[in-house]
Structures are given as structure tokens and as C-alpha cells.
Design goal:
The protein has 280 residues and is of the alpha/beta class. It is built from eight helices and 15 strands.
Length: 280
């Protein structure tokens, strides 16, 4: 069962035996790019750590899973990341027994930065009870189709509001979209080079020993609120020019009903659907 830990950009997955905290996209070391341009921003890693420790203390999960993009640089690791990333996870160890990271597109060469006790999961995702988690820059594994609820990061979704004077306000949001289970299953099986023989359900049973359940997808806000995000209500509907502003193959697929997705502020306020906000 998935619980959104409002007003935190975090969620809790409860099974019969474990409680797993989910966060996404901390992007440790984002200040380094600004420093290279002559803009001095002190390291914000301590603030991220304080915020996460407060959530861990409040909910006391047995496990923590980060849904990708632990660090900011993509292919390399800057000096500051070599300092901040290991220290970040080392200081989390007293508060949670198990820490895992689903690899994101910013996590190349991440392994040398992680303590031995922190495990790295594939970008295709993992299953936690009845919840399937993945980062979102790649297609998830068909194994996640056996989960009713899917959770991804990667998008950093925000909405932007403007008043008549032009003042702009940006707020982080949660997104919840319905999934066309069979269409999504066909896509993932094709990407995994598995031919559908008979029905989709029969194929999943034969190759993965699962029953098709996936019906909803949650897109997490970034745990790092310094970064901003993509103003999804300023994107155009898919039927007009495609979902070009929604990054990742899953959100661009016709199997996820992004245009009708429900949008929630971090305090739980329901804003309406994406199509409704685009029309304002």
C-alpha cells in the first residue's frame, strides 16, 4: 500500500513485514554548476540531509529507496560530489537499516561514491510489495506490471500560476495518472523482446509468473526543492503536438493518460486535471 507523506515530497510503501520510504531526485551537488559560472552558492546537502532525517525520524521505516538522480552531474562526478554523496548516505545509516538507489540518468559512475551498505538497483526498477518503482528515463521491467501502483521520478513536476500583473508562482506537485494496463503491458513486453503468444495475461504468466495489475502511476516531486521543475500546465496537450515537455518514454506513451492526470499540491490540495489547468 502506498501512502503519500504530505506535505513532504516522499511516500511510504507498507507491506506485511516492512515500511519503505520513497524519495526521488535529490541531485546532490547541483550548486557546483553555479559555482563554475561564478555564482557562489554554499553546499545545500546539509539542508537535504536534515529534511530527510526529519522524515525518517517521524515515520521510522526499515528501508529507504531513492528513485534515481542521486547526484547532479550526468556522466562524471565532480570533486564536491565525491565529498558530499558518501557523507550524505553515511550519515543516514543510523536512521534506517537498508538504503537502495534505483539508477537514474544522472547516476553514471555512482558506485564508487556509495558506502558498501548502500545497494544500487537497475534503472528498470524494483518491486516493493504491490508497488513498482523506477526512475523514468527508461522503460521499466515487465515484472512491475504485477503491481497495481507504479511510482516514478525524473519529471520534477511543478505547476506555474500567473496573476494579471505577470507575477509568477511555481509550486511542486504530485501527479496521478491512470494506466491502460494491456496497452502498457504490450509495450513493455515488446521492449523486453518478449513476443505475446495468446493473451497478454498468458504471456506474463509464462515469462514472469505475474498477473497483470498495473492501473495507476504516481509521479513524485523532486526531494530537492531548490531545483524547480517542469511547468507541466504550460505544456500542450498530447493530441495537438505530442507530450514534448514530458520527459521519459513512459509519459510519452499512449498507455499512460497524462492529459487527464490528477494534480495535487504537496499539502494535498487537489488542483484538478492537467487538461483543466492548461485551459486556465
Amino acid at each position: 500500500m502506498l501512502n503519500l507523506l504530505l506535505p513532504n515530497p516522499a511516500a511510504l510503501v507498507k507491506t506485511e513485514s516492512t515500511r519503505t520510504l520513497l524519495i526521488s531526485d535529490p541531485h546532490i551537488g547541483w550548486e557546483l554548476e553555479l559555482q563554475e559560472k561564478g555564482i557562489h552558492v554554499p553546499s545545500q546537502t546539509g539542508k537535504l540531509l536534515t529534511k530527510l532525517v526529519a522524515v525518517l525520524k517521524e515515520y521510522q521505516p526499515e528501508a529507504l529507496v531513492v528513485l534515481g538522480d542521486v547526484k547532479y552531474t550526468v556522466m562524471k562526478s565532480e570533486f564536491g560530489e565525491w565529498r558530499d554523496v558518501p557523507e550524505f548516505f553515511r550519515l543516514l545509516e543510523p536512521y534506517v537499516s537498508k538504503i537502495s538507489i534505483v539508477r537514474g540518468n544522472h547516476d553514471a559512475n555512482l558506485e564508487p561514491l556509495l558506502p558498501e551498505s548502500t545497494s544500487l538497483l537497475p534503472a528498470t526498477g524494483a518491486v516493493i510489495g504491490d508497488v513498482g518503482v523506477f526512475h523514468g528515463h527508461k522503460w521499466p521491467s515487465p515484472e512491475l506490471l504485477g503491481c497495481k501502483t507504479l511510482v516514478m521520478g525524473h519529471l520534477h513536476p511543478v505547476v506555474v500560476f500567473r496573476d494579471p500583473t505577470g507575477l509568477k508562482m511555481t509550486r511542486q506537485i504530485w501527479m496521478r495518472a491512470d494506466v491502460d494496463s494491456e496497452s502498457f503491458a504490450k509495450i513493455l513486453l515488446r521492449k523486453a523482446n518478449v513476443k505475446v503468444v495468446g493473451s497478454v495475461e498468458e504471456t506474463l504468466k509464462k515469462h514472469y509468473n505475474i498477473k497483470l495489475k498495473s492501473s495507476e502511476l504516481y509521479i513524485m516531486p523532486s526531494f530537492n526543492d531548490f531545483l524547480g521543475g517542469r511547468p507541466i500546465n504550460e505544456s500542450r496537450p498530447r493530441k495537438e503536438i505530442g507530450a514534448e515537455s514530458l520527459i521519459g518514454p513512459v509519459l510519452r506513451s499512449e498507455a499512460v493518460h497524462v492529459d487527464d492526470s490528477e494534480l495535487y499540491l504537496l499539502d494535498g490540495t487537489y488542483l484538478g486535471t492537467l487538461n483543466q489547468l492548461r485551459g486556465l
